[in-house]
Amino acid sequence: MGSCCHTLLRDLEFLKVVIGVKRRGDALVALDKRDGFTTADWLEACVGRSPDDEALVFEGQSWSFKELDENANRVANWGVSAGLAAGDTVGLLMENSAAFIFFVFGLSKLGASAALINHNLTGGPFAHCVEQTGCKALIFDTSLCATIGAYVDSHGGGMRMFCYGSVDSDAPAFALEIDPFRGHAASSVPRELRAGSTRLNASLGTTGLPKAARIHHLKAMLAGVTMYDFHRVGKGDRVYLTLPLYHSSAMLIGVFGCAALGLPLLLRRRFSASQFFSDCARLRATVVLYIGEICRYLCATPPGPHDRAHSVRAAIGNGLRPDVWEQLVERFGIGYVGEFYASTEGNANLINNQNRRGAIGFISPLIKRKYPIVRFDVERERVVRDAAGRCVEAAAGEVGELLGLIDNADVTRRFDGYTDRAATEKKILRDVAAEGDLYFSTGDLVRQDVEGFVYFVDRIGDTFRWKGENVSTAECPKVAEILSAAPGVSESTVYGVSVGSLEGRAGMAALVVEAASFRFEALAQTVASLPRYARPLFVRLLPALELTATFKIRKGKLVEQGFDPAVVSDVWLYEEAAGAYRPLDVEMHRRLVSGQVKL
How far apart are CA 317 and CA 338, in angstroms? Predict the structure, then answer.
């Protein structure tokens, strides 16, 4: 795959940004080696460049970078009085707010790391996330009291709990009510409190199903500004963010990226399709951050007065389907869509800054060795190797797994993995192109065209995406295992199925049950403990699950058969409003696939 003349400028621009990222990263490493340099020091340096510029806008209030830093200092000084210390991991269970950001930066000034917990989780999945991060304390806002209360009821009150909310709110009996922004100094805490913290210590952690990913200080400092460099975001831009802050893209690109470049972040508590562009017009937003599901909702809204009466020039995000991409551009007049492909923990990150519709990025011939696409055997769920034991490169147009070269000596090639070492090891592929080399296994199937543009095809194995979230069926805590806990369920498997033109794949479960003891009412109660996006919307009852020669469940055939009652029998649909499963008939299937009934 050679570089065509019409891709030469693209590749040269790409190389220029990569060199800039490398230099920026090397400078941060040098600072850290000399005197220690973490996100706390980095924030203070960012603030020093534009202290009086607008940093954050939220619900009618505005904070300058100096005020953002002062509030982070107040959190740090409160943390000292509360006994928090360097090395502690503190869980944050909060809806979007300015305070969320102050807590993240304030904890970093103590040398503590913030575990960003998905506030949609409840029950067992929530408990799993708390336990796998090793939290010493939890900070939550008043809207999440019920989640924390249920956790305390089932797991005890051994962990320190801090409730942040309005002045009038009463903290639950198991928590201390806090307001770090009243009565605590705005001055910096001594750097000695975080002595020993380095660029490679955990700064943040994202949690949810299936695994908790670690984000070290260096990645936090580089990720957002790198993304903005590639997508040509800079001075004069104003970034509108409605994604939840527990998402790595919201925190790293939105919060850290804006701080790095001195840009105002326009934060909303939660996404609203009907108010999205009126917000953008009022706040003078020029850049919006998205996931594909958000764009689909926007395109589904009735025409409105602000469809084009706004100043948004660019949308940056991932997971945007080609058909929705076209609607977004044509209806709302957004001149630039910057799609990217990335994972919180991985290093196989692709950028599409060429407005190539449908592409998740491109692989320049200049870095081909670092981002190979290799043939993959879907049936055996493993890469294809040649007689010498090396992976076989996929040809242009051929589907294969995307990999990322691991080199921890290079700031752009690190892979630090998860809090679970076994999970980290499973993502490392060895001897790919040469003996002893290491590559990050993305677990995603892609295809590349002759110009180097890459297109997402599917996720390997048991993880699929629905409602903008990853749904794990095979890794702890297993959705299938949770289903198996329902009375009368003897075997279960979960997979994703396409529903008409909807984004992602909806969860579907195939169950083998004992007729005498199985009840759909009990199954519905069991799935209610899962977050909404992880609940199987379709259930199929089978006499047995078909196995491969290696005793793995043949999911491929189940996925192909789908949920059409004209093709398969005994299929049930989960009706969320009723919290119950109902038999799925041909007419309801037609309405679901046509989009007449929303999921």
Answer: 6
Domain that holds residue 578: 463-594
Domain shared by 563 and 469, yes or no: yes
Cα–Cα dist 133/386, whole Å: 39
List the structure tokens of 553.
């469940």
CA dist 85 and 214 (Å) reads 19
Q: Is residue 559 assigned to a domain?
A: yes
Give the residue carrying structure tokens 């991991």. Answer: 89
| Domains contained in the chain, number | 2
Average pLDDT in the chain? 89
Return the structure tokens found at 2. Answer: 């050679």
Peptide bond into 244 cis (omega under 30): no
**What is the reported pLDDT for 467?**
83
**What's the rounded Cα separation, in Å, for the pair 154 and 98?**
31
Provide the whole-model pTM: 0.82
Q: Tell me: do 532 and 488 sit in the same domain.
A: yes
Clarify whether residues 531 and 569 are in a common domain: yes
Cα separation, 187 vs 208, in Å, equals 34
535-582: per-residue pLDDT in tens? 999 999 999 988 654 456 778 889 889 999 999 999 999 998 899 999
Nearest by Cα to 331 from 308, 358, 300: 308
In angstroms, the CA 212 to CA 133 distance is 7
Q: Which residues share a beta bridge with 405? A: 439
Residues 6 or more apart in contact with residue 200 via CB below 8 angstroms: 216, 217, 218, 416
**Is the bond preceding residue 477 a cis peptide, omega within 30 degrees?**
yes
Q: Are residues 412 and 475 in the same domain?
A: no
Give the pLDDT score at 57.
98
Pick from 104-108, 120-124, 276-280: least confident: 120-124
Instruction: Say whether 295 sits in a helix, a strand or coil.
Output: helix
Beta strands 160-164 and 463-466 are unpaired
- With respect to residue 434, please indicate whether it lies within any of the assigned structural domains: yes
Q: Does residue 421 form part of some domain?
A: yes
DSSP letter assigned to residue 524: H
Residue 74 resides in a domain: no
Per-residue model confidence (pLDDT) at position 550: 43
Task: Strand 176-178: give its sheet, edge to edge.
Answer: 176-178, 160-164, 137-141, 89-93, 113-116, 202-206, 213-216
Beta bridge partners of 494: 509
Average pLDDT over residues 84-88: 92
**Least confident range of 56-65, 67-76, 459-468:** 459-468
Give the Cα separation of 263 and 236 in Å (integer): 7
